[in-house]
What we know:
Elements: E1 2-11, H1 15-28, E2 35-37, E3 58-65, H2 71-88, E4 91-100, H3 101-107, E5 115-116, E6 121-125, E7 137-141, H4 153-165, E8 172-175, H5 181-188, E9 194-198, H6 201-213, E10 221-225, E11 236-242, H7 245-251, E12 259-271, H8 275-284, E13 287-295, E14 298-305
Parallel strand pairs: 6-7, 8-9, 8-11, 9-10, 11-12
Antiparallel strand pairs: 1-3, 1-4, 2-3, 5-6, 12-14, 13-14
Amino acid sequence: xxxxxxxxxxxxxxxxxxxxxxxxxxxxxxxxxxxxxxxxxxxxxxxxxxxxxxxxxxxxxxxxxxxxxxxxxxxxxxxxxxxxxxxxxxxxxxxxxxxxxxxxxxxxxxxxxxxxxxxxxxxxxxxxxxxxxxxxxxxxxxxxxxxxxxxxxxxxxxxxxxxxxxxxxxxxxxxxxxxxxxxxxxxxxxxxxxxxxxxxxxxxxxxxxxxxxxxxxxxxxxxxxxxxxxxxxxxxxxxxxxxxxxxxxxxxxxxxxxxxxxxxxxxxxxxxxxxxxxxxxxxxxxxxxxxxxxxxxxxxxxxxxxx
Length: 307
């Protein structure tokens, strides 16, 4: 199978928000994750060997199956980038590189390093070394074609909220589970069982592999292929949805059907500008908003069913 790396090299006076805006374009195309580069980036001391050369430019890269990147989609990408230049003064150029699946599978690994998500939880890509203090929870992740290693702010915010609100024995559902990282975090924090659903069959397989890699066994977890909660037939105490805010607003029309009487919903993947709309919708369906957290222009929101 052939893949195409699409790299957007950009210049901006505010590079971090610019990275997020370009990343959002890739997410709108249906990608599960992107790779980011910035000048001077390198792993922190003691977090692994074999550091790569430092990038010369800020960039955001996405990987597309070759058959899913026709000329019309390339034109759409250029149009959206042109709009960012007009509205946000983000200058950019696009590079395309075709690669075989084997090359693709290795090329993005150089971007990912262990990430300390909370004081207690560390997310570690399987191909990196990390020396634990012994008291930490180590989540081993090989994101494969589903991406998602915990390095993105939306994932980190979700893990932090799971750690804060989840109690041992809580039932757990992750909607749009991707690489399964939130399921693994919940299971290691005592949730049982943990369920996940994704509309991408590849993500479902990758999530299963990661759960087994972290010694979480059936029947302690269950994975399904489907859209949002269409195939969910039982209630859960804690539900997470780390997806785009537009999809979250659709999910909120039905999510209470999958929540028990004390159900908690953690939403992430929300840009700051869309947070108020999500909060308003959560309140309208009977959720009490407990907390909003922000990181690098992304927002996560926790809400519990009103008693």
